[in-house]
Amino acid sequence: MIQIGENTLMLLRRISTHLHKFMSLPAILLFAFFFIYPLTQGIGISLTDSNGIKAASFIGLDNFVTFFHDDRAMNDVKNTVLFALGSAPLLNLFGFLYALLLDRQFKGKSIVRTIVYLPAVISPLIMGYIWYFILQPERGFLYHMLNQLHLVFLSGDWLGDSSSALKVLVLVNVWQYVGITMVVYLAGLQSIPKEIYEQGKIDGASYFASLRYITIPMLYPSIKINIVTNIIGSLSVFDVILALTDGGPGYSTESLSIYILRMLYGSFTGYSTAVALILFAIIIIPVYVFLRVTKSKEYEM
User: Fold this and answer.
1) How far is CA 87 from the centre of its chain?
2) Mean of the pLDDT values across residues 240-247?
3) Residue 241, burial from CB neighbour count under 10 angstroms (0-12, 13-18, 19+)
4) How far apart are the C-alpha atoms of 264 and 134, rounded to whole Å?
5) How far apart are CA 166 and CA 177, in angstroms?
6) How many CB atoms within 10 Å of residue 137?
7) Is the keyword Signal in the record (predicted)?
8) Cα separation of 25 and 21, whole Å?
9) pLDDT mean across residues, the chain
10) Which residues of 76-99 are buried (b: 16+ CB within 10 A; e: fewer)?
11) Number of helical H runs and strand E runs in the chain
């Protein structure tokens, strides 16, 4: 029989007590390497006049001041926020309605789920080009279909009109990603114990009363996940705009993500990094506020 000394036992107990700290070390190192280090480097570059080629000089907060005096940048902030205000609520609304519908038993349910979710697995850039060929004025699939139905007066250059282009982009984005929102809500719906609904029926609760007092409160974790991810995704929108309008007509649909890319390739590395940090703040502030406001409202299963 192996004899273990007193010192060895103390060492094993100490390791066991602090084991969770050692196990969290890889995650901390990865977070520091892939987030903290790039963030600190980005803050440093944003305070310089770097163009990515010549040696950079420290210019303090000039890049940030320039941003808030740039009309094009302010227009892009407006476009980005409007896109998020349109996209995030619609994604949650239609995702929730789809989940309620597809949580019921009916023939072909799996096929409908697949059809709703399928666009989400296609590259946003490819999806944007597909919609571009559908919506092309006088050449696209929609134009020819309306022409066959003698409804050509309904067609128009929606992507070429600054008053409608952003709305079309919002709808395309919602159409593509509503499947992801739906899946999260479906998972939440299927985790609600059926006994609660049965108890509600015994107490005389109608369908809408059950929805109001059982389903929605029990879905708070899913609602939080969907709202946070949709805010982040909508405020950092890039691919669909690039594919459908390239930010046009003019700069009427240009988002901050596209603006950052164009400044970067325009040899304004320091400035584009400063704008990226501002976009980071624009994304993180509403997410933080939302999580703080809803923190006390989450119901435990």
Assistant:
1) 9
2) 88
3) buried
4) 32
5) 17
6) 14
7) no
8) 6
9) 88
10) bbebbbbbbebbbebbbebbbebb
11) 16, 0
Tokens encoding 291:
């999580």
Token pair for 68: 């808030």
Q: What phi and psi values does residue 162 have, to the nearest 5 degrees?
A: -65, -20
Interatomic CA distance for residues 273 and 127, integer angstroms: 28
Question: 274 CB contacts (<8 Å, ≥6 apart)?
Answer: 46, 47, 63, 64, 67
The Cα 56–Cα 50 span in angstroms is: 4
**Neighbour tally for 9: CB within 10 Å:** 10
Residue 294 pLDDT grade (very low, low, confident, very high; cuts 50, 70, 90): confident
Is the per-residue pLDDT at 297 higher than 80?
A: no
Rounded to an integer, what distance in angstroms lies between the CA atom of residue 283 and that of residue 233?
A: 9
Please name the residues in contact with 225: beta carbons below 8 A apart, sequence gap of 6 or more. Answer: 184
Are 270 and 45 spatial neighbours (Cβ–Cβ below 8 Å)? Answer: yes
Distance separating alpha carbons of residues 179 and 114, to the nearest angstrom: 9
CB 6 within 8 A of CB 17: no
Give the separation between CA 58 and CA 44, rounded to whole angstroms. Answer: 9
In this structure, the chain runs to a length of: 301
Rounded CA separation 142/149 (Å):
11
Identify the pLDDT of residue 229: 92
Nearest to 249 by CA among 168, 190, 161: 161
